[in-house]
Design a protein that fits this description.
Structural class: alpha/beta
Radius of gyration: 16 Å
Helix content: 40-55%
Number of strands: 7
Oligomer: single chain
CATH topology of one domain: Rossmann fold
Strand order of the largest sheet: 4-3-2-1-5-6-7
Shape: globular
Strand content: 15-25%
């Protein structure tokens, strides 16, 4: 039995933090897991910038409401879900993901949660588990699934490398150069064909 594990941001939807950096006029927030492999370090740094500028969950959610899936993402996901099981594994947060999941036709997503004060200030974050993508792939394998994984960033490499087939999608030149052994695609049609061939 197969199950496909996909990253969300940069693969199915634009990067939330880049969109918010542009909307808020704070260019430092453009830093993502494509740039910083240590997710805890990255998130704590982001929360510090939000606090410094007096921004909270409401402002980020207002930006997310205007984000649409990447062109072709919904059709890709619908086609993929018609032939196999799919789970989105993301380091994003439930409070960010819900409107995006609606636009993608409510696929299953495993992600994390934010700690938010009554004032709307994001005071912290709760990761579902350590190395959540790799840990989840290994857990799925432990209950009889063979995994196929795809993502674009450093935090996707573990699940991609641990799966029976794994693909980079819309990744950076640096990650592609560092991992020439991983097939890399830019178009949904090519990724879909590669996944179907691996099933």
């Amino acid at each position: 039995m197969n199950i496909v594990c996909l990253d969300m941001e940069g693969v199915l939807v634009p990067e939330i933090w880049i969109a918010f950096a542009e909307a808020s006029g704070i260019p430092e927030l453009k830093r993502t897991t494509r740039d910083e492999p240590d997710y805890n370090k990255l998130m704590n740094w982001r929360l510090g910038i939000l606090k410094e500028h007096g921004l909270g969950l409401k402002e980020i959610q207002a930006t997310i409401a205007k984000i649409n899936p990447l062109p072709g993402a919904r059709e890709f996901l619908d086609e993929l879900r018609s032939v196999t099981q799919v789970i989105i594994l993301s380091d994003t947060f439930e409070e960010f993901a819900k409107p995006l999941m609606e636009k993608l036709g409510w696929p299953t997503i495993f992600c994390n949660s934010l700690e938010v004060a009554k004032s709307g200030e994001i005071t912290g974050f709760k990761m579902r588990c350590a190395q959540s993508k790799l840990t989840t792939v290994k857990a799925l394998q432990s209950i009889g699934y063979e995994t196929i994984a795809s993502g674009d960033s450093y935090n996707d490499l573990g699940m991609i490398q641990a799966s029976k087939a794994g693909f980079l999608f819309k990744s950076t030149e640096k990650i592609k150069a560092d991992h020439p052994e991983l097939p890399a695609y830019e178009e949904f049609g090519d990724l879909l064909a590669a996944i179907k061939a691996a099933l």
